[in-house]
Structures are given as C-alpha cells and as structure tokens.
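Box S1 | Example of a co-folding query
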Amino acid sequence: METTRTELVFATNNRHKLEEARAIVGDMFRILSLADIGCHDDIPETAPTLEGNALIKARWVKQRYGYDCFADDTGLMVDALGGAPGVYSARYAGDHCSPDDNIRKLLSELEGEENRKARFTTVVALITGDCERIFTGSVEGSISTERHGDGGFGYDPVFVADESGKAFAEMTPEAKNSISHRGRAIRAMEEALRSS
Ligand code: IMP
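Box S1 (continued) | Returned holo structure for inosinic acid
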C-alpha cells in the first residue's frame, strides 16, 4: 500500500529524469510526472536562460494544477562553439529534431576541432507553497568523436565525463546520477528540503 509520502510533481514526462529524481528524493516524496496529474500541456520554454525556462515550467504546474513541484532545464555548453547549444540544446538541429539529429549536428560542428571541452548544467526550480527556490548542478567533460554506449538519453553517447572517463551512455544510471548535472542539482534541492 502507498505510504503517506508527500506528493511532489516533477514537471516532466521523461522517464530517465523521473527515475533519476526518484532515486534521490523518492524516499521523502512520491514523485509524480505531468501525465500523473493529467497535464498534457505543451508548456512553452521561451526564456533565454535555463533558470527562466525552469521557472516557467514550475510556475505553470503550480498555478494551473496547484501542486508543489519542481522543473529542470538543462544545457550542454561546448567551449569551442562559444557555449552553444546551451539553452537551445533540445532544438539544436531544428524544431522537431531527434536526439540523434542533435548528436549528428554536434559531431559535424566539431569535426577537426581539438578543443572538445564541454559541460552540462541543470537548473532546478522548486516551488513549495509560495516559496520559489533555484538549485544548480554542473558536470565537466568533453565531446567524443564517436558515439559510445547505449544507456541514458539525449547527448549521453557523446558526453564523456572527466570524473569517469566514460560516456554517460556507458555508465549505469546510478553511476551517472552520482556525478551528473541533474543529480547534483536535485541533491542540492534534496538537502534544502530535508533541512526545511
Ligand atoms: P532538457 O532541458 O532537460 O529537456 O534538456 C535539453 C536538452 O539537453 C535535450 O536535448 C536533452 O536531451 C539534453 N539533455 C538533458 N539532460 C541530459 C542528460 O542527462 N544527458 C544527455 N542529454 C541531456
């Protein structure tokens, strides 16, 4: 039977992200997805910053559905591309592109480039009651010249974390979570929730 854990909505339907968050705060909260609360809205992500987009999503859920919630927005910043794709990481290869399209474009933009340094940054916006809080997490790495592994999602096959020397797609979900941008941002949120 379900225990009396407080419900907290994660404003996403991405099952990888939901699993990552449940592994970190699942003992404290029953994490619900957008689908779980009957939200099938196409929430606009029109802000020019990660923080702005995370706040749009969290406020959308709080204001329209009434749940305490958090939302994340992530960018992949590649040094040789002046920080691109950054806040536009999801649509790097075009409006309705696939993760594979994005990887193909990234590898082609970096063809012949020696400086492959990159980082993922996640901003999490948390709204509990009328309190809004922001948490950030980053992970340093580099973009490989070829795809590796078959786990994870998004750019995971070509992002090699400095700390592991492996592509995220080659790591177990637990190992990725322990060093990832989103893992770090959600653990910062967890610490704040435990101490409040
Ligand atoms: P979002 O803001 O979390 O939806 O992410 C923006 C873009 O970054 C999308 O293309 C995602 O696939 C990608 N992305 C976000 N998190 C990760 C990750 O942990 N690994 C690889 N790609 C990611």
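Residues 7 and 30 are 5 Å apart (CA to CA). The mean pLDDT is 95.
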